[in-house]
Design brief:
Structural class: mainly alpha
Strand content: 5-15%
Radius of gyration: 21 Å
Number of strands: 5
Number of domains: 2
Helix content: 40-55%
Order of helices and strands: HHHHEEHHEHEHHHHHHHEHHH
Oligomer: single chain
Length: about 350
């Protein structure tokens, strides 16, 4: 049982600091660029560093798979039984040529890795919005007939990338629903710009402030001020509502079915540079290491994380944990720590 108090919420442990320092490194291009600062490295030294990252990530991956297997055995009877072949996430990507299956988790480097699959299939990333193009330009598990689906899940190399649930939730809020968040600032078209606040933000505001105030805030963009606490309380307490279960904050175990699909590679945003090298080199994609070096997003940096979560009451944090507790357990995240 996890007990939250104001004193023990969100300790940035030494291990996470050390990992963050290690993550400064990784790609051939970034190492090579050090030459401009009098830090040129030989090809042999670069290879040594890559091998160290590979070995580190190989051990992590083995530990993660063992952990998932152990937790699955423990919680299998506590969650709804689903047939992964019939209920598979329609966004799971399949590359037939390279025999790879990837389950994208929103707010866990999925844009970058969708780009990788465009490179594999088309030789380049799309000029237009990658998420829109993906629907028609890539093959998805649900596009296949049941027999081929089963073949993919049994015989293809399967991987996913996960993220600390609390930082993933904060990233989703800041991108989609925060007033003037990153989604709104990157869309000039008003019909797209305010999509999330109109379709989901309005429901949350109506729930906590009433229809009149919600309507006024949606009609007057400058007045919109949905808070992180309102978002957290909504997705924690009203999971059965469709909009509280949007895939951008849906639990990973319900998106990617780790209880029913045995993943070969389980990467984490927090260690993505090393995990990326391990995945690419293990699957014969050494030419892609430079382009897909892997990096953590900064939308939920330590400062932002502390700022937003320290303003939440303990009961809101506890309720949020209860919703995502299986993700915490499966992927070995500490709810009291940033990493």
């Amino acid at each position: 049982m996890v007990v939250f108090t104001r004193n023990n919420c969100f300790i940035l442990t030494c291990s996470s600091v050390c990992i963050s320092l290690v993550l400064v490194y990784y790609s051939r291009s970034s190492i090579g660029s050090m030459a401009g600062y009098g830090m040129a490295m030989s090809a042999e030294r670069i290879e040594e560093i890559e091998q160290a990252a590979f070995s580190m990530a190989e051990k992590w991956n083995s530990d993660r798979k063992t952990r998932i297997s152990q937790v699955c055995n423990r919680i299998r009877n506590d969650i709804p039984q689903l047939d992964a072949k019939s209920n598979a996430n329609k966004h799971i990507i399949v590359d037939r040529k390279h025999r790879i299956m990837y389950c994208p988790v929103p707010k866990a480097a999925c844009t970058t890795w969708k780009g990788f699959f465009f490179q594999l299939r088309w030789g380049k990333e799309p000029d237009a919005d990658i998420h829109t193009q993906e629907r028609t330009s890539l093959i998805h598990l649900m596009d296949l007939d049941p027999i081929e689906r089963e073949t993919v899940m049994k015989n293809y190399t399967k991987f996913l990338i996960v993220r600390h649930p609390f930082t993933r939730i904060l990233s989703a809020y800041r991108n989609k629903l925060e007033p003037n968040g990153s989604y709104e600032t990157t869309h000039a078209d008003v019909t797209k710009k305010y999509y999330w606040r109109k379709n989901i933000g309005a429901n949350i505001l109506e729930m906590y402030r009433g229809k009149k105030i919600a309507k006024k805030m949606i009609e007057s963009p400058a007045k919109y001020d949905l808070t992180f606490r309102e978002f957290v309380d909504y997705i924690s307490n009203y999971k059965r509502k469709a909009k509280a279960n949007d895939r951008h904050w849906k639990e990973v175990f319900e998106i990617c079915f780790p209880l029913y699909i045995e993943y070969d590679f389980v990467a984490k945003v927090e260690t993505l540079p090393q995990d990326t090298i391990y995945f690419l080199l293990s699957n014969g994609f050494s030419d892609h290491v430079t382009n897909y070096q892997g990096h953590a997003t900064n939308s939920s940096s330590m400062r932002a994380f502390t700022q937003f979560y320290n303003n939440l009451p303990v009961e809101s944090i506890e309720a949020l944990y209860q919703r995502y507790k299986f993700d915490f357990q499966l992927f070995d995240y500490d709810p009291r720590s940033f990493n």
